[in-house]
Specification:
1083 residues; alpha+beta; Alpha-Beta Plaits; 5-stranded mixed beta sheet; 35 helices; 40% helix
């Protein structure tokens, strides 16, 4: 199937589904129950109808069990209602269900009626003449199958598709990974069909047996009434059994970073044959399925049959699950009770732990019936070992080990001292190691080598960042399965398939030990959180320390008078529409930042969250049509570049002394008065109170050359008539904002009135309640941090203040910028700068504006007799810091401020973790970071001088080289630069090419010149890469011995090619080789 202009989006579908066809091709392959073929196209059909049919793409998710009937038993509205009602009853995840607002108030149970409003895809199908003809010609059965069990996409010319029904496409993008795998799942469950990844079995070896012996045994078999045996019947029973297993074993396939083979044997009791499946199977995201053809050991089997189990390289233990835990040692897994029905809860025993580890997981603790009811002999023999583990756990002196390894030198009481009283990951590892050595019996380790390897992985796990994970394949690396005799039925030699099965059991045990015991113990004894200044690095606070910190932070926050405590009577009288937010704190350098988060999946909370998003979107439409409502607001570096470029060009044409004032508002979100917020928002929404807004939430899926498949969730809002999804996609393509993508509509609010939005905002300020512990509070001042609309409300309020008090501040030149609550004034008039400083330093109580004097800076001497305590006075000509940038106060050249990296490790500025292809993930990660760091404000030759741009490029490249080294250090065991040096060299030159492309994109006015003759040549960028990477590689010479010669050869060749001024520019940018602001950065 080839459709002009759709080759890229069709390739996306082919990578996710086993079959991709037009609806004509799909119908041609379907046989009806009467043996005939369904006729979808007739000779009398118009060309428009035929083109519409060619624009429907069908991807089968689930095959039909029986041949469909070609009779039309119901009309299209009845079929659609029946399908939607069944989806709603079964809570199916389907794009079709997104447009069905079910509300059965009358209790009508008629399945052929709509019990609610239909929008989006259901409305599109309901009003479509095309679908009516499809239902008439294909019949009810096939139409129902298309809507329920197929993913149907419609063409939106010229290059896009949108999904009509089926499981949302974006659900298939992210591969599902699991930290563990169990043996009790049904062996007859469906397996994702993936014909491209079939593994062919290795042909078995056949031992030669004397023909007379074989004939004698066959004769005896016929006399006994049994079946004729195979060619290896004359072998001894043990050897014959092993060969039978080997006949169907897959050839051993090594993972990318593990030496574990991935096949497993399973028996078939019906035909006495043996089949094998992969013990760690990649969980494919394609939804085409095929039922397992082999029978298994019952509906719930302790043996692996055709279960779609992940490989160990795709099973991960994630650090994210240990964050913000409030459960103590009582909530630890091994201390939990087992629900036993009418007998009440009881403590865990050895067989219960065996079921937890190998068979059923934590669902067993919730009262799930034992499956199988009796433990198989292999697992029954393990029960005594796990009983010993339980006894050791109950005797373990956890408090003593914690005090011994994570003790505090003194007991601080002030907040600043408590903030630094967190335990380092190594001290936490020492505590966990003591507990493991005490609790886990020696027999479970198998050998000292296994124990030491596992402890090394525990240390590695506890050093990971917030979003990182550890692969089970790394945990299993070099583990000796043969040393763990408790995994088998009996000691001694065993066949290969038995060895693979034991590998799998050992992987299950180690995954449980890491995920449930180690991380569970850390959650029970520590409060784990991130901090504001250290990116993704985790802090481990002992419970008593965190409780003191939290109490002090809460008292300080409560003393500001922004919250009102609710009495029990007030709590009981709260309306049903009240939503409750939970409060938590994040450590800062000198305090704690409160973060509120709505918790709950009930309809009231969902409705509230949707209304908050509608408020954000409607306000966004208003400020887009009237930018003056935002005043001097800038949303990021792109806006800063736009505002600063005009002033910088004027300064370069006519240099004048410039005066800088930087002001930071203290507690901006928490100090906004509610009455002023209502006034500001009312003024914004007053012109549109009777206007209806259309708000569309959708997902976009596309493919990038380096990043692969990508997905993004978008929102479009506008005061216009709502059009269907096809019209919307075609309109976006006409505007040039969309191409070669597949869209999935999630939610559409066709008529949101401005009056309703304003009423909700007033209700939001008065009914939002915060819970902290067992107490509840109402926020009487400020807005909660963490809400999607908080930044916009803060910007609108401060913009209103600027328009009231500071409207004349830039009348005679200069510019005013504000990034949420950080103000920066650049003006050629000293009196304007002083007025701005005096006005904000005095505070503006009407707007809750209180300045933090420690974060105020100027570049001019203050007037005599005027005192501003705490204000930092910088030289007249300096690099002025503001929001991560350094601005030259004389030329307005812009540099990046790297002081935020001082004292921090780059290791925690990246999210690495374990992936199936770590080197490829490393390349994608570094490329994405490089594009983010190559800001136009740093590379624009119209704003900056050539010397500044060269210097900015060298610093960007040097930091990228340091990130490269951090990523290499994080590669899994067995992988290094020496394995494939050519790949890493290509990665470096690809980054150089990407950097030059960003430079060209930032200078599209022609100031850059050509590639070979311009003022900044591509070879100069390559030479900067050589100098920066050589500096990093020399420091770690033992790792990069294979790359240094190639890098130096390229450097010498480029130095010979570049000569004169261009070479001098490069050397000037790279002097000193290590800039002063880079010396404090830790790799």
């Amino acid at each position: 199937m080839s459709v002009p202009g759709l080759s890229r989006v069709l390739d996306i579908l082919r990578s996710l589904y086993p079959t991709v066809q037009t609806i004509e091709d799909y119908v041609d392959g379907v046989a009806l129950s009467n043996g005939r073929k369904a006729a979808l196209v007739e000779e009398a059909d118009t060309s428009r109808f035929k083109s519409l049919l060619r624009g429907l793409i069908v991807c089968v998710e689930k095959q039909m069990r029986d041949a469909p009937s070609g009779d039309q038993l119901s009309t299209l509205p009845e079929v659609l209602a029946y399908v939607l009602n069944n989806m709603n009853k079964n809570k199916s995840r389907n794009v079709l269900r997104f447009g069905y607002l079910f509300s059965d108030k009358d209790g009508d149970a008629d399945p052929f009626k709509f019990h609610g409003v239909i929008t989006q895809s259901p409305a599109f199908i309901h009003s479509s003449d095309l679908w009516k003809k499809i239902n008439q010609r294909l019949g009810t059965d096939l139409t129902q199958h298309l809507l329920r069990n197929c993913a149907v996409f419609a063409v939106a010319p010229p290059t896009c598709l949108f999904q009509v029904c089926g499981v949302p496409l974006y659900d298939l993008i992210s591969m599902h990974v699991s930290p563990r795998f169990l043996l009790c799942k049904s062996a007859t469950q469906s397996v994702p069909a993936n014909p491209q990844r079939k593994r062919h079995a290795r042909p078995p070896r056949r031992n030669k047996v004397h023909p007379r012996e074989v004939s004698r045994k066959r004769k005896r078999k016929r006399e006994d009434g049994g079946e004729v045996a195979g060619d290896d019947e004359g072998l001894p029973r043990k050897q014959r059994c092993c060969q039978a297993m080997e006949k169907t074993c897959d050839s051993p396939v090594l993972s990318h970073n593990t030496n574990i083979t991935d096949s497993e044997q399973t028996s078939n009791h019906n035909n006495n044959t043996t089949q094998a499946v992969s013990i760690f199977r990649r969980p494919k995201v394609a939804t085409g399925t095929a039922q397992a053809s082999s029978t298994s050991h019952g509906s719930f089997s302790w043996k692996p049959a055709n279960q779609p189990l992940p490989r160990p390289s795709e099973c991960f233990i994630r650090m994210l699950r240990v964050l913000y835990s409030r459960t103590g040692i009582r909530g630890f897994l091994l201390n939990r009770k087992l629900t036993c029905g009418s007998n009440g809860p009881r403590s865990l025993q050895g067989p219960d732990v065996v079921r937890l580890v190998f068979l059923q997981g934590e669902a067993y603790l919730s009262g799930e019936e034992p499956k199988p009811k009796r433990l198989p002999r292999r697992f029954f023999n393990m029960a005594p070992l796990f009983s010993r583990l339980l006894r050791n756990h109950r005797k373990c002196p956890y408090a003593h080990f914690l005090h011994k390894k994570c003790s505090l030198a003194n007991q601080p009481s002030d907040m600043v001292s408590l903030l630094t009283a967190h335990c380092r990951p190594y001290r936490v590892y020492l505590f966990v190691r003591e507990c493991l050595l005490y609790v886990v019996p020696e027999e479970l380790w198998g050998s000292d080598q296994n124990r030491m390897l596992f402890l090394a992985r525990v240390k590695q796990l506890l050093r990971l960042g917030k979003f990182e994970s550890l692969s089970l394949a790394q945990v299993m690396w070099s583990m000796k399965v043969r040393d763990c005799g408790w995994l088998g039925l009996k000691a001694g030699a065993h066949c290969p398939s038995e060895h693979r099965y034991r590998e799998r059991l050992l992987g299950q045990f180690l995954a449980w030990l890491l995920e449930s015991y180690v991380l569970g113990l850390v959650k029970a004894m520590f409060y784990v959180t991130e901090s504001m200044g250290q990116k993704h690095a985790l802090r481990f606070y002992r419970r008593e320390v965190w409780n003191k910190l939290q109490t002090l932070a809460f008292r300080e926050h409560l003393s500001k008078g922004q919250w009102k405590t609710l009495t029990s009577q007030e709590v009981a009288s709260l309306p049903k529409t009240t939503v409750t937010a939970r409060l938590r704190f994040i450590p800062k350098a000198h305090g704690m930042r409160p973060i509120t988060r709505l918790v709950g999946a009930d309809p009231v909370t969902k409705r509230f969250q949707r209304s908050v998003k509608n408020l954000r979107d409607v306000l966004g439409v208003c400020v887009k049509s009237s930018p003056a409502l935002l005043g001097s607001t800038v949303w990021g570096r792109q806006d800063i570049h736009r505002v600063l470029k005009t002033t910088a060009l004027q300064q370069k044409i006519k240099p004048t002394p410039l005066y800088f004032v930087k002001v930071d508002v203290s507690g901006a979100y928490d100090s906004l008065p509610h009455d002023m917020l209502v006034r500001v928002v009312s003024e914004v929404l007053s012109p549109v109170q009777d206007v209806g807004f259309s708000i569309r939430h959708y997902a976009k899926v596309w493919r990038e050359s380096l990043q692969g498949l990508r997905k993004q969730f978008c929102t479009r809002a506008g005061a216009q008539v709502c059009i269907n999804m096809k019209g919307f996609v075609m309109e976006e393509q006409e505007h040039g904002e969309l191409h070669n993508a597949i869209l999935v509509e999630n939610y559409n609010s066709p008529d949101v009135k401005g009056r309703d939005v304003l009423e909700f905002f007033k209700q939001m300020l008065t009914t939002c309640v915060v819970r902290f512990g067992k107490r509840m509070f109402r926020q009487v001042c400020g807005i909660p941090q963490g809400s999607v609309v908080s930044s916009l409300l803060c910007n609108l309020c401060y913009a209103h203040m600027e328009n009231s008090l500071l409207s004349h501040i830039t009348e005679k030149g200069g510019c005013l910028m504000r990034l949420v609550d950080d103000f920066l004034l650049i003006t050629p008039k000293l009196n304007k700068a002083m007025y701005f400083l005096k006005t904000l330093s005095a505070g503006v109580p009407r707007y809750g504006c209180v300045v933090n004097p420690q974060k105020v800076a100027v570049n001019f001497p203050l007037e005599e007799g005027v005192s501003f305590p705490g204000v930092r006075v910088l030289p007249q000509h300096c690099l002025f810091p503001w929001c991560g940038l350094l601005l030259d106060t004389q030329t307005l050249d812009v540099y990046n401020d790297y002081s935020s990296y001082a004292g921090l490790s780059l290791r925690y500025s990246l999210t690495l973790g374990s992936t199936h292809s770590p080197a490829s993930f490393m390349e994608r990660k570094l490329m994405a970071i490089l594009r983010l760091k190559c800001d136009a404000i740093l590379l624009d030759l119209g704003t900056n001088s050539l010397e500044t741009v060269y210097k900015n490029i060298y610093k960007i490249v040097l930091l990228q080289a340091m990130r490269f080294n951090v990523c290499v250090q994080s590669l899994p065991t067995g992988q290094s630069v020496e394995t494939t040096p050519a790949f890493f060299l290509r990665m470096i030159w690809a980054m150089a090419k990407a950097t030059y492309n960003c430079i060209k994109q930032s200078n599209q006015d022609g100031s850059l010149g050509s590639v070979n003759d311009g003022c900044l040549r591509y070879k100069a960028v390559q030479l900067l890469y050589c100098l920066a990477f050589e500096l990093v590689f020399v420091r770690h010479r033992h790792k990069y011995r294979c790359l240094l010669p190639c890098l130096r050869q390229r450097k010498w060749r480029l130095q010979r090619t570049l000569s004169g001024m261009r070479l001098a520019r490069v050397r000037q940018a790279a002097t000193p080789r290590v800039p002063p602001d880079f010396k404090a950065i830790r790799a």
